[in-house]
Amino acid sequence: MTAGDDRLIMLSAGEASGDLHGATMCRALRTLDPGVRLIGMGGPLMAAAGVEILVDPTAHAAVGTSEAIGRVPGLYRAYKILVRRLREARPKAMVLIDFPEFNLRLAKQARRAGVPVVYFIPPQLWAWRRGRIRQMARRVTRVLAAFPFERSLYEEAGVSVEFVGHPLLDVVPGDLDRMKARQQLGVGERQTLVGLLPGSRRQEVGRLLPPMLDAAARLARGDGRRCFVLGLAASVDRGLVLALLARASETDGPPVEVVEGLTHEVMAGADVLLIASGTATLEAALLGAPMVVCYRVSRLTEAVARLLNRSPWISLPNIVAGRGAVPEILQDEVTGTRLSFEAERLLVDPVAATAQRAAFKEVRSRLGQPGVGARAARAVLKVVGAP
Predict the structure, then answer these.
(1) What's the rounded Cα separation, in Å, for the pair 183 and 203?
(2) Which carries the bigger pLDDT value, residue 300 or residue 10?
(3) Which domains does the chain have, with CATH numbers?
(4) Number of helical (H) and strand (E) elements in the chain, helices listed first
(5) Where are the beta strands (DSSP E) in 204-260?
(6) What pTM was computed for the model?
(7) What is the pLDDT of residue 322?
(8) H-assigned helices in 49-99
(9) How far from each other are the two terminal CA atoms of the chain, in whole angstroms?
(10) How far, rounded to the nearest angstrom, does the alpha carbon of residue 241 sit from its chain's CA centroid?
């Protein structure tokens, strides 16, 4: 590959969600410009979308301060690889996807090399470390915002910004209804389905699945028609989940079916979800699934978060809605007793579940329209100067 290749675009995504959204945009890029060359950091979905993957850290994502320490050596190696290729190949643009701690450093190197930087799914400055907007202003050529309220934030700081919408609108199936989802899961219409979504990272599953299983046991004792399905993320070791399930069964926990590749079906078919805070909560909201959100991190990460967090909520449905539409159970409060109490309320009180679904319709209306990947791709090509 020659230096200064006028059809070369470099990308950087460091987590599974970034790989997913990057793949959507990359498919659109190749459709709009079949001759474009794509290289960079990402995962299997971006590779399938035609990206030459130089390094893949997406299967080893971590969250929080202490949790991420073990990833530092690998991410430093990835950074060196990307900077070296950036200087050698001189792409027409660098496209960054989420993953701000890493990508903002990469943006600095790109600007030094004279390469324009496009940030797709920018840092959540409205919730964390708003002071980083100065770095964005210095290093980023154009921001492609996922949330409508981000536009004014960047405009006030003098950063070129375009609201393209949230990329989940291109991913979540709009035609997946409750009946179809339950048929695919083998769940009867008269059964009450409780979905368990303990996260996409090993640490999340280790911390959240045991109290979720305790909650499942309590919910099962309340009604024999209740069944439990766990949606296993592709990035999570099945053996870890099965070991935790085996441990729960020793204390008379209910049967829990583990399914892979059917996360959206679990969301759409569930009467209630116990779900880890993260991008999945927004997917569940788009599918209208009543939910109880929970999360636990290390004490160090909790202390840092209290210093830096600017939002009263952590879950995306609440942040987008601008109010506490779904319960958030955090840290030491994440117990089987508390989770089952909140889930039971949604199961037996139709007003509570209806209120959540009404809030989710508001959330959906604020995220833009499908076609996000194509809009993002056109914005990238505009920065590149391609027709």
Answers:
(1) 32
(2) 10
(3) 8-166+369-384 (3.40.50.2000), 178-366 (3.40.50.2000)
(4) 17, 13
(5) 226-232, 256-260
(6) 0.88
(7) 92
(8) 65-68, 72-89
(9) 22
(10) 20
In this predicted structure, the answer to whether residue 61 has a pLDDT above a threshold of 60 is: no
Residue 70 — very low, low, confident or very high, per pLDDT cuts 50/70/90? low
Task: Write out the E strands in the chain.
Answer: 8-13, 37-41, 51-55, 93-97, 117-120, 142-145, 161-163, 192-197, 226-232, 256-260, 272-276, 291-295, 328-330
Amino acid at 135: Q
Burial 105-134 (b: 16+ CB within 10 A, else e): ebbebbbeeebbbbbbbbbbbebbbeeebe
How far is CA 212 from each of CA 10, 113, 301, 356, rounded to the nearest angstrom? 40, 49, 22, 21
Q: How many CA atoms lie within 13 A of 373 on its CB side?
A: 21
Q: How far is CA 151 from CA 97, 156, 257, 338, 352, in A?
A: 17, 9, 42, 37, 32
**DSSP secondary structure string, 133-173?**
HHHHHHH-SEEEESSTHHHHHHHHTT--EEE---GGGGTS-
Both tokens of residue 157? 């700081």
Q: How far apart are CA 217 and CA 222, in angstroms?
A: 9
Q: Who's near 246: CB < 8 A, 6+ residues apart?
A: none
Tokens of 200: 């996409």
Per-residue tokens: 378? 């056109």
Secondary structure string (H, E, C) spanning 90-127: CCCEEEEECCHHHHHHHHHHHHHCCCCEEEECCCCCCC
**Identity at 73, one-letter amino acid code:** P
Backbone angles phi, psi at 368, to 5 degrees: 95, -155
